[in-house]
Amino acid sequence: MRFGIFLAPFHRVGDNPTLALGRDLELISWLDTLGYDEAWIGEHHSAGWEIIASPEIFIGAAAERTKHIMLGSGVTSLPYHHPFLVAQRFVQLDHMTCGRAMLGCGPGALVSDAYMMGIKAEDQRRMMDESLDAITRLLACEEPVTMKTDWFELNQARLHLAPYTYPHFPIAVASATTPSGVLAAGKYGLGLLSLGAGLPGGNAKLADYWRQGEAEAAKHGKQFKRDGWRLVVNMHCAEEDERALRDVARGERIETLSYFSETLGRPPMRSENPLGDGLKAGTTLVGSPETIVKGIERLLEYTEGGAGGVLFRAHEWANREDTLRSYELFARWVMPHFQNSLTMPAQSREWCSENRSGIFGPSMNALRKAFVDAGQEVPDHMRMRLHTGKVDL
């Protein structure tokens, strides 16, 4: 299973935005060091908190600071861009990162962004579908693409570079509160970013949405693979449950009241007490590594078949030190549980423990002989162990 973050980002108004962007880059470098698999970076243009306007620029900077982590847009709001330019930019990133780029797609989450550009809310999902149609056809590199809609036109368009990744870099569609995202992902055989998994009640809908996506994929002759399904939830890890809750209580409340309530007017599906409700529902994971493990296992049960990855919505509920510590604790004590990296060390330890008398006991004779051969007295503690026939481990 893959793990990573979904970086909107979320920074309080009043915080130095230049320093905040620097912290975001430092966070991704830290995650790369810890062995996280993915980071998805958002696109927003209003409301003051989510201050990255160009995921592509951010990905280019992050790629130079990292070695392994995959970097995607989370998401590129397709109605805001000509699809030809989206395809061209991500093909370039695919080459410049040697295959570490990913394209996340969505209709645009902030209504205020679309309003400023004169895009009607009722048109956004249709526009996303039309853009995806164009982008997937361009990336196929099979024949020139000609199509015309009420907002873009392609005339014998073709890319001047084929993707670095064959047949193309990973593409995923965001799904939050409506089925449009999962239906688009199924229609084009793409990955799925289930942002709704982190909303109260969202986990209960996961299996049903997946079935809808599978049915849509079958209708269009596409494959809808669980390996490309990522679940996006909130997470903070500390050594004990009580410490984790203390870490995040104040910061989460500030985010809920200042941003989601006072700025956005509490969007649909947003609870008045998202931390408390999310903890009860299992859509927010706050606690010790053991608690987080159980929470992820419970989340995966709702999928009725599993998913390819879990992403954590990057937030600053806790202070900087505790936030970085949270990601480290998760990488050390939770991630291995789901990535099959603990089996061999555990088996090796168990084998040594069960056979220690027969394996380590005889070695004491060799150690004693080494002293005798050197003409030296055998230390008393070795004589005692040899006398009892036991090895103190």
Automatic annotation (TrEMBL):
Keyword presence, Flavoprotein: yes
Residue ranges constituting the Luciferase-like domain according to the UniProt record: 1-306
A matching Pfam family: Bac_luciferase
GO terms of molecular function: monooxygenase activity; oxidoreductase activity, acting on paired donors, with incorporation or reduction of molecular oxygen
Sorted UniProt keywords: Flavoprotein, Monooxygenase, Oxidoreductase
Cellular component GO terms held in the UniProt record: cytosol
Family (UniProt): Belongs to the bacterial luciferase oxidoreductase family.
Protein name: LLM class flavin-dependent oxidoreductase
Protein species of origin: Dankookia rubra
Organism ancestry: Bacteria, Pseudomonadati, Pseudomonadota, Alphaproteobacteria, Acetobacterales
